[in-house]
Amino acid sequence: MQNELRQLQKLIESVRPLSDEDWSAFAGIWKPYSAGRKEVVTPAAQTESYLYFVTKGIQRVYYLDDQDREATLAFMYPPSFGGVVDSLLLGQPSRYYFETLTPSEFLRAPNQELQALMSHRPAIADMVRLGVTQTLSGILERLVEVQCFSSEEKFRNLLRRSPHILQLVPHKYLANYLGIDATNFSKLVNKIKI
Q: 104, 129, 144 — which closes off a domain?
């Protein structure tokens, strides 16, 4: 678990470095967890109980409407945080599913312990706030893409942000994430030089 904690510390330092004392307290709440391929870790209607740090595998968060149409909202892969974060931080039932696409390994921190740390250690609360703010900024950028960009522009931006994603995530999920028909997505993959 030491290697995974070093990966977590490196990611934390990119958001907001913590003192040795704060890092030690933060590192102490994480425990290993694993899930198999295509396993729903957090279903809709359940309140998220953990913050996940992805150490292996690929996951997604998706929405399922009343007609069983899926909308893939986000992908997670090492080293990144995962789970249904709005449910976690608001303490409300999730509207989304957190699912593994491949066998996955995580460190996970219970929300109660995370909240206790945030209330007693301002630097940890500030780091979490900054991380959530950075995520919100990315989501707003993605909303602009979804509403204003052509299919090709969305595809090119995805490759610019995550050039390796075509090798990680099945194309049907990428097409869904971009809001592009699977056939058109295949044409874009063949048309655009990567």
A: 144
Domain housing 125: 2-144
pLDDT digits (tens, 9 = 90+) for 105-118: 999 999 999 999 99
What residues contact 103, with CB distance under 8 A and at least 6 apart? 34, 35, 36, 37, 56, 57
Same domain, 97 and 117: yes
31 and 122 co-located in one domain: yes
> What is the reported pTM?
0.90
Q: Are residues 63 and 157 in the same domain?
A: no
Q: 60-99: per-residue pLDDT in tens?
A: 999 999 999 999 999 999 999 999 999 999 999 999 999 9
